[in-house]
Design a protein that fits this description.
alpha/beta, Rossmann fold, 8-stranded mixed sheet, 7 helices, about 30% helix, globular
């Protein structure tokens, strides 16, 4: 009883640090992943499975950015997606995930330590790239959400340029985020990108945003707006 209570208390503490800026500290994540087996940011797969399935098929190569200790890759595998590469900046997260996948016999899923701001992949490598709450970390100390700090914009644009580079033609970037469309639009619609911009919401009570950006499908008008798809029934 006491052991379980201590574990529960530890997990509750690890849900969020005392300061949001800690999310930018790699040591925070190493410590957290050393003590936490599993946690899903922005809901688990069942809440947005229908949205993912509309954009993915078993023949696709998939990259997950900032996998942490999420079970997203395992659920994708269960849906028939076997060509999956997971990355995380934390060596602890990578080691733990490799052990977990090995214990489940999921040896086809690749896991590697990598920085989302400097993706170590060749151009046009993946059909789909997914991040769930990972990019949101870059905004924790961004200041005014309508006018984020230049340092924040630089980091976000560096990430997006890397994603755009390693996507195949007609590849899809899926971003699952707290960030609202009117705040994300200026970044996603930057002139150096060729992707379209669509979004849906999911969740009950509090809604999260599910963005899909298809490379090479930007409108001739420059896609200054965005296409709002109907909110699905949850």
């Amino acid at each position: 009883m006491d052991t379980n209570q201590n574990l529960n208390n530890t997990q509750k503490k690890l849900v969020g640090p005392s300061s949001a800026s800690a999310y930018l500290d790699p040591h925070y994540w190493d410590e957290r992943f050393s003590n936490e087996e599993h946690y899903e940011w922005l809901k688990d797969y069942s809440h947005f499975q229908h949205l993912i399935q509309a954009h993915i098929n078993p023949n696709f190569s998939v990259l997950e950015l900032g996998c942490g200790n999420s079970q997203l890759s395992e659920h994708l595998y269960e849906d028939g997606i076997t060509n999956i590469t997971c990355t995380d900046l934390s060596a602890v997260a990578v080691q733990n995930k490799q052990k977990r996948l090995l214990s489940k016999g999921l040896i086809e899923i690749k896991v590697m330590e990598a920085d989302m701001l400097d993706l170590p992949f060749s151009d046009e490598t993946f059909d789909v790239i997914i991040e769930k709450g990972t990019m949101d970390v870059l905004f924790v100390d961004s200041g005014d959400p309508w006018n984020p700090k230049p340092s924040t914009v630089t980091k976000v644009m560096k990430m997006l340029k890397g994603v755009h580079r390693v996507l195949k033609p007609n590849g899809i970037f899926i971003s699952i985020s707290f960030g609202q469309p009117h705040l994300r639009r200026p970044l996603y619609n930057a002139p150096e990108f060729t992707w379209s911009f669509e979004w849906k919401t999911f969740g009950d009570g509090f809604h999260y945003f599910f963005y899909t950006l298809k490379k090479g499908n930007r409108s001739l008008e420059g896609n200054e707006g965005s296409k709002r798809l109907e909110q699905p029934s949850i």
